[in-house]
């Protein structure tokens, strides 16, 4: 009989009865019973230019010594095609890059591996891939060397089709944030940084470290009255309805709105009566306007207190903290006023369905666990004992073990909010710029979300594991509330990692002066350089006050969307789209061509969700009777085309029309009505014929009535 002899690197030699030896590869199985498989990199089937060495990883060996052009492969048998999470265990001194493919299908391009500072210092990176069923070679092709590979794990993606009872509001439901209809809501959001709180680094206005200090510098040049005029002009121009529309068109579905308390109430030092709050209408009116815009455009808004009374951390640029005055944590009046402000806001927006909740404190960063940190009054007010603190070693609270004052603040704020609003989710940020959640969980409220922030960190599974563990242990949703200040490649890999791990996200920020890391870049007038030079170099000769005032008014006007420069590639790195289709790469239509619904270059009143349809990935859904998806196509030959639409509808009643944007909106076909399929995820295919001219233009799928899902469109010339 035939005998099988297994030798190194996953290659078997099959010795037949006739004595002929033939190479056979070890086959890794992915079937209905085994939804994941870990592939030992050192047991490759075939390779070019690859070596194996002893490893500190558990299997004992890793593949490595990679150079550009090297490759290695393994045999896999995939019984169920669809969406898989691919995890790679890598170590790198110099970074690196590779592609994952089969013989017939490019699965992924990993364009920038993190540097782990050692050939045996291991991290895990992840991404989502679509794999067709069948037995095939899984191939890693090295595009840039300088790294080692220990293993690859393929895990079938769990479907997020959880439905919670509809409440009419965004809320927490177990480990998910759900929309008003109870469907999982995947925030892809943008923050409005630098609007109500001008951060000096965004204004290029160092050495000022906080808004209050920058305003003092400015008042010294133009006077207090002109400063007030400038700030009003800034607030009027920086964020408008057009910004909301541009954010939505770029593929974002939500906006995080940072608030400065001093637009809503007086600081405690200026209150005429202690324990009484003077409310300032301007801040409420401006937030009302933003929420009205978001409601009209059907995009969610999440207010966040970016600068709390007194300042919630020693990082002055983000909290407007002034060390000469008591912080939030050093005066009970600051704490009381902050909670009163949140209660007033919650009462105002208790029934606002496009408000997706309240982010109570942006990036607290305060060392609580040292004997001299908190005043006795604040300890008493927060019901925190003044004894038995361990001494933390980080002044921004990164090593605090208990965070008792922060937890007590949250508990009291939640109680106050729930007296007037039981509808909305509440987002909880940790100490240490949002990331130290020690001692904060569990909370008694069942409509809370754990929020963390993400800056200057490798995009590896290890960097998220702490929060994933919190999610699993306490059955709470996660929200990555803020990230950015990096390059587009980092953005792209960060979004991929978050979405693979089912974590909604918001980015920072919409506009900055002369920056490519924001969605839009502001270019101030030339005269602004004279003011910056005066501040930075402490020149004794002041610029002319009238000149300085006019320059600052021009700066405020330069922030309007029509004057700002869109960083299309930055937005595309986050959502795959930009604010329009002008810069989008066209989809070639020559033979039968499938266009995935989520690949639109322009979107209105529609959003994505993970699909249960064959092939996995995403589908687009409409809840309203308006909106569109736009695709830039390049048709090789004019003529009649068969158009096939992959649709689903729970109750029917939906409708859409295909149009061509060449000179105007030319109708290419007839109105289509998706049939009742019995489920939002039970897809069927409908079809029609359309007339397509030759050339490059935009194909628009315009919704005439909501209540249906679209997974893909296929175009094929009729022969």
UniProtKB/TrEMBL annotation:
<keyword id="KW-0732">Signal</keyword>
<keyword id="KW-0326">Glycosidase</keyword>
<dbReference type="Pfam" id="PF03422">
    <property type="entry name" value="CBM_6"/>
</dbReference>
<keyword id="KW-0378">Hydrolase</keyword>
<dbReference type="GO" id="GO:0030246">
    <property type="term" value="F:carbohydrate binding"/>
</dbReference>
<dbReference type="GO" id="GO:0009986">
    <property type="term" value="C:cell surface"/>
</dbReference>
<dbReference type="Pfam" id="PF00150">
    <property type="entry name" value="Cellulase"/>
</dbReference>
<dbReference type="InterPro" id="IPR008979">
    <property type="entry name" value="Galactose-bd-like_sf"/>
</dbReference>
<protein>
    <recommendedName>
        <fullName>CBM6 domain-containing protein</fullName>
    </recommendedName>
</protein>
<feature type="domain" description="CBM6">
    <location>
        <begin position="37"/>
        <end position="155"/>
    </location>
</feature>
<dbReference type="InterPro" id="IPR005084">
    <property type="entry name" value="CBM6"/>
</dbReference>
<comment type="similarity">
    <text>Belongs to the glycosyl hydrolase 5 (cellulase A) family.</text>
</comment>
<dbReference type="GO" id="GO:0005576">
    <property type="term" value="C:extracellular region"/>
</dbReference>
<feature type="domain" description="CBM6">
    <location>
        <begin position="593"/>
        <end position="716"/>
    </location>
</feature>
<dbReference type="InterPro" id="IPR017853">
    <property type="entry name" value="GH"/>
</dbReference>
<dbReference type="InterPro" id="IPR006584">
    <property type="entry name" value="Cellulose-bd_IV"/>
</dbReference>
<dbReference type="GO" id="GO:0009251">
    <property type="term" value="P:glucan catabolic process"/>
</dbReference>
<dbReference type="GO" id="GO:0008422">
    <property type="term" value="F:beta-glucosidase activity"/>
</dbReference>
<dbReference type="InterPro" id="IPR050386">
    <property type="entry name" value="Glycosyl_hydrolase_5"/>
</dbReference>
<dbReference type="InterPro" id="IPR001547">
    <property type="entry name" value="Glyco_hydro_5"/>
</dbReference>
């Amino acid at each position: 009989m035939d005998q099988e002899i297994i030798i190194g690197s996953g290659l078997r030699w099959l010795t037949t009865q006739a004595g002929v030896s033939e190479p056979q590869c070890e086959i890794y199985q992915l079937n209905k019973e085994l939804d994941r498989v870990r592939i030992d990199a050192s047991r490759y089937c075939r390779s070019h230019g690859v070596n194996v060495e002893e490893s500190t990883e558990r299997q004992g060996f890793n593949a490595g010594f990679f150079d550009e052009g090297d490759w290695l492969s393994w045999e896999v048998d995939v019984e169920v095609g669809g969406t898989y999470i691919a995890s790679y265990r890598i170590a790198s001194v110099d970074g690196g890059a590779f592609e994952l493919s089969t013989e017939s299908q490019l699965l992924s391009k990993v364009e920038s591996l993190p540097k782990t500072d050692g050939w045996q210092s291991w991290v895990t990176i992840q991404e989502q891939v679509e794999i067709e069923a069948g037995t095939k070679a899984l191939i890693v092709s090295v595009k840039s060397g300088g790294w080692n590979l220990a293993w690859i794990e393929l895990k079938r993606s769990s479907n997020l089709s959880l439905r919670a009872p509809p409440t009419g509001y965004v809320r927490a439901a177990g480990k998910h944030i759900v929309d008003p209809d109870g469907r999982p809501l995947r925030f892809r959001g943008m923050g409005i940084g630098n609007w109500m709180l001008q951060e000096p680094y965004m204004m290029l206005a160092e050495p000022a470290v906080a808004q209050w200090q920058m305003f003092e510098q400015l008042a010294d040049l133009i006077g207090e009255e002109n400063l007030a005029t400038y700030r009003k002009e800034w607030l009027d121009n920086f964020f408008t309805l057009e910004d909301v529309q541009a954010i939505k068109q770029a593929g974002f579905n939500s906006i995080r709105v940072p608030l400065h308390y001093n637009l809503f109430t007086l600081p405690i030092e200026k209150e005429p009566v202690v324990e009484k709050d003077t409310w300032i209408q301007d801040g409420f009116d401006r937030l009302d306007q933003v929420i009205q815009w978001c409601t009209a455009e059907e995009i969610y808004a999440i207010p966040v207190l970016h600068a709390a009374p007194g300042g919630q951390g020693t990082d002055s640029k983000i909290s407007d903290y002034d060390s000469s005055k008591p912080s939030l944590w050093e005066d009970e009046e600051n704490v009381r006023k902050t909670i009163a402000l949140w209660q007033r806001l919650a009462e105002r927006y208790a029934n606002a369905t496009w408000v997706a909740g309240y982010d109570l404190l942006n990036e607290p960063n305060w060392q609580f666990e040292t004997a001299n940190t908190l005043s006795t009054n604040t300890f008493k007010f927060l019901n925190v004992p003044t004894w038995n603190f361990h001494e933390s070693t980080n002044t921004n609270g990164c090593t605090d073990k208990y965070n008792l004052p922060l937890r007590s603040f949250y508990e009291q704020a939640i109680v106050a909010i729930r007296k007037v609003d039981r509808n909305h989710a509440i987002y909880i940020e940790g100490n240490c710029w949002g990331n130290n959640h020690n001692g904060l969980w569990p909370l008694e409220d069942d409509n809370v979300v754990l929020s963390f922030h993400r800056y200057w960190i490798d995009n590896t599974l290890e960097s998220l594991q702490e929060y994933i563990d919190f999610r699993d242990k306490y059955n709470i949703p996660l929200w990555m509330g803020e990230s950015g200040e990096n390059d587009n490649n980092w953005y792209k890999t960060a979004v991929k990692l978050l979405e693979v791990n089912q974590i909604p996200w918001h980015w920072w920020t919409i506009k900055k002066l002369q920056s490519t890391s924001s969605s839009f870049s502001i270019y101030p007038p030339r005269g602004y350089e004279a003011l910056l030079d005066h501040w930075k170099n402490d020149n004794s000769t002041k610029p002319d006050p009238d000149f300085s005032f006019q320059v600052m008014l021009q700066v405020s006007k330069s922030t309007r969307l029509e004057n700002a420069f869109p960083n299309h590639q930055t937005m595309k790195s986050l959502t795959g789209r930009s604010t329009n289709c002008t810069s989008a790469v066209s989809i070639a239509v020559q033979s039968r061509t499938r266009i995935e619904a989520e690949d639109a270059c322009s979107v209105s009143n529609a959003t994505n969700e993970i699909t249960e349809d064959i092939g996995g990935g995403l589908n687009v859904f409409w809840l309203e009777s308006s909106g569109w998806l736009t695709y830039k196509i390049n048709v090789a030959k004019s003529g009649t085309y068969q158009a096939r639409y992959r649709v689903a509808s729970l109750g029917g009643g939906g409708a859409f029309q295909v149009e061509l944007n060449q000179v105007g909106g030319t109708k290419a076909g007839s109105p289509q009505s998706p049939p009742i399929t019995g489920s939002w995820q039970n897809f069927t295919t409908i079809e029609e014929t359309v007339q397509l001219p030759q050339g490059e233009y935009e194909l628009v799928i315009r919704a005439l009535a909501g209540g249906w899902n679209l997974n893909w469109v296929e175009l094929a010339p009729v022969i």
